[in-house]
């Protein structure tokens, strides 16, 4: 289950108070919260054009009328603030003041803007708070010499830089292990929120204890996928991104960090108990198989454990034979390791050699169960006369969820296509039930004759129980499980003007209404929408929000106000052949990470993707309502990470970084590519970049009929009618993609905002900048470590992410 240099930098501090909210900003409660100003009268609450408004009616050329949002909101001297208001000017003009006051209420300074026009307009006033400022307020105003009537709605104030806080929360486990009475569920956190272990009583189905997983500032623990109960009853957890091993003794209030797995690089992917309280584990990215025994780590076998492996992704242990089975990747391998003699035997059936990973292993009922993609292999392990071992396939069960139950009465249980199924080991047959557990199970156990599973559902953690003898079953929500923030992986603006955010690993979707958030930045303003896995990109087009999610490059769409979860339209992971990689005469491999989206006026949606583990060739997927989707090879050995539609064609940019697990990480000697696809002819063309071997073209967008893009630290621009004639402008030094390879998939963003027709805005390398459309001169607006992504609201505010927190930078053209 996978369930953002030529100018001085902005130095305004980011305050941690989320949105500044004017009481009764939309005049829904009449004039409550708005103090009289200037001449008496002239202001009244009315409904205008279907809105609740404040009408400022000025018929006297010698008088001034207005109302001010007093008392003001907290403000800091030296910081920039901007007021926005929606106003319909029936006659004359409408004025908006942004006012700064001291601690005694004295007026220290103000800025002014006005607008006219018989339609709903947004008027903006911006200024820097002077020395001594304690509060900021807004004044709606009709000045002396003005005669006219204006209707005011939604008066809002924003700081220049605002930390809007956590947007997505999760309460689902990544890993689960059991003892006779309890489930131990591991809940993933973020770089700023430690993961937690929940102890859940299987009888009462309630949390009896929550334990925070400790870490240090130099070795932060974010989460984990590995949990195991040792023979002495201790619970072990394997975590990332520091390969730490933890032990929890049931009943205690805290757990112990045992240190980093020997040689482990970032992940402990799996743990298995051995005899005598031992625990075995596997790591990424050095492909190490290790043992923890009596206070010490020991590497077993070579490093990597299997030649060429970066992952020891899954482990199963046969205690009777003291043999451990290792499932590795990126090129799938399955080996039996004899813990007594050190002998290693390869068991992977030849038909599955093209897979990238053995994603799950279990030894139960005298059989080895191996998960490859969504196929569950049931293997007999047979000793040959010469002492070697081989595997014979009893069954290959497709579309089976991971994991499955321990063997009981000759059967194991698992979920397939939403229904609970059993597999009979003797008869080698699969039997479906009518039971729908309604959760992604992270672990099974048996309590007496009852099968018990724990896992993630759309509403949180659920516990599932099924008694085969009677057919009785239940699926119940577990209350009081840990609720932790989820890191933001993608963000975009919906057609409703709201800012949507997609969660990393545990999925989930956050929704933020610009300038209407609450003052609590440690939890979302609105409940997290569940039902989607990790989102990699978003786009508004055709009145919909398109959402592209990992794994398997799934394309969804959502119409604001419509049902949630969104509608699934296409799955790039189902396209292509696992043995292909866009080689001669080949098609694309299955796709996985959809980092790029573009839309055509005719309703067609284009998706650019990174392939599945171990492959290099990304692809271009094409979908339109009522037509079957398709996925095309574009540039062999390169991923597609940026797209733009312009001049009747789709233009794409590639990255020379392949999927996770390829070695070397970047295609040797390769240069990123610009390509075009003509939907009328189906023609694909590549266009040479006048740059020295950029590793990636991470951004493309249409600007005034031209295409703008980012290739490394350079801006590229061209006419879509003449894509071979490309102009380059150096903006920054090329990013260091060697040390931060993930940025070669998603480092840059370019966009335009209606409030500033003279500039294009962008992010690259922890910086927000703007570029003059006419001169290409660049100005850095803000620098913040860890900044990624960029989208804009209807006021022109720019949004980006740092970890689990959404930030806004208010643009003042």
Automatic annotation (TrEMBL):
KW Nucleus (keyword) present: no
InterPro entries: WD40/YVTN_repeat-like_dom_sf (IPR015943)
Record's keyword terms, sorted: Signal
Signal peptide: 1-17
Name of the protein in its database record: CBM-cenC domain-containing protein
Organism whose genome encodes this protein: Nonomuraea turkmeniaca
